[in-house]
What we know:
- The chain is mostly helical.
- It has one domain.
- It has 3 helices and no strands.
- The chain is elongated and about 50 Å long.
- Residues about 1-15 have low confidence and may be disordered.
Amino acid sequence: MGVEERRVMTKGDSPCDFVEYECCRTRNRVLDRIASGPLTEDSALSEVLDSLELVELSIEVEESGVEPTVEIKTVRDFLWLCKAMEFQRQRRVAGKDLGKKSDSQNAS
Length: 108
């Protein structure tokens, strides 16, 4: 596979933004492997992620606030989890934006 580029957290990043970046990077790698043929959505997630990456994924899920209702065993489960984490992130961002608008309206 080669050396993968890792993003370094900067002062303005929240831990959640960094976690979601890592999940997105992994999701893109999985989607590339599905597109090239050796992997399907029914493949075991252990075919894609090594044991350390599986542990990191568990931590990322916990930090994201998403609580999967099923065990993440397959690539399809992983892709669902990524969508759920992205949805959670969008709700958080939308909530922050609404809070900012409300604060600016109250200040007027």
